[in-house]
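WP5 quarterly update. Target: Thioredoxin family protein. Source organism: Gaetbulibacter aestuarii. Length: 443 aa.
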Amino acid sequence: MKNLLFILASLILFSCGNKTKKQNHSIIGIEFSSESFEKAIEISKELNRPIFIDFSTSWCGPCKKMDNFVFTDSIIGDFYNKNFICLKYDAERGEGIILANKFEVNAYPTLLFFSPQLEIELKHVGYKGPTEFLELGYTVVNKEFSYNTIPNSLSDYELNIQDITEFSSFVGYLSPTEKDSFLFDYFQDIPHDKWYKPQYFHLIENYSYSIFSPLSKFVIVNRNKYSELYGKERIDKFISGLMLFAFETPKDLYGKPYNSLSDDEINKLLFSELAKIDSVFASKNRLNHEIMLVSMNVKENYNDTEIWNSLFTKGEYYNKHYSHFDKEWHNFPNNWYYRALQITPNNLEIKNYNETILKRAKSRLTESDYNKFAEGLSIKTVQRFVSSEKQSENSKKELTIALRILAKSHNVSKVWANDFLSKINVSDKDIINYKEEIIKNVL
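Structure tokens (predicted):
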């Protein structure tokens, strides 16, 4: 077994493969099937091939690490694609919820291996590196190890994967403005042609914040090639995220020479630069920033009709001209749910706040937009209540309004309910009843 691990590790960590393969072959990795679980079972029996399922969630760090450093490897892709029916589910969405409950999946990632007869051959919880993950697959298919079982298309990782993952863990603790500097230093010794590879793009995508950093500029200039490799939606989302961050913290990005300028002057300068990159993205995010500022102003002047009119006018214009891009680009959404999150006050001591806010929203919004708004305001209110050290009669009143709204909705996730509702320990009858109703809906 030690010899097997040594050989597998050597094959994954060093480039010694067939150089006639296309440059981007290693990006393919595991090809997860889009078939339903029932259909996958049929295919598994027909081909007499076991099933591999990766259960993950959108917030799971180790899951993302496997997505970027393990599932993208060409050796792993070749082996798993030839020997398994590969499926991937978000355990908190769609069919993933049903299957996660059925197979008692409670932690992520969970790696499940089934025989064609649907018997669980192996179940592993937690992150597995490339070598260990490949060994899991060999264990399940029970094959004799030989060089013939290793695909001819070898991984072209030329840096120790452990080095990359350790750096990823380190840079994750830095502030956004520090990350760009450390990241660029790390990339100095890496040839530009390798910046396209999944493990390096993962670092840029997750830790490059400044739109003017050399790494961000490289992705923007080579946008078409990155879009071919990783999909246009993903690259558009990355660039739009850079723009949004630029509007939120312009002084940090521009540095000391610009500290004497006003926020308005910097924003104008910033907008002119961003418009050169993508005028539609820039206009969209500038309006998004304006709406955010108005939303924050509402918190301090929640009875001011003029401010509310400005919010509704800007919001309606955004929805008419830009909301379709949110879905197309999987961009940061600017709907009434997220606007309500920004309107929620930092404390719950303002009397009749939620009641007044909801009345204002109801008078101008469609039923669909109002429901989104009410849900966002309510979820944030619960979070504010839980994080507050003082739980006064007024904060309990605001909480009661929020829980009453959420009790009518089935959109609250199980994770959110566990994290926040379990921390509400009050004896008020209404609060207890609403909380129990929400938990019942979740389960």
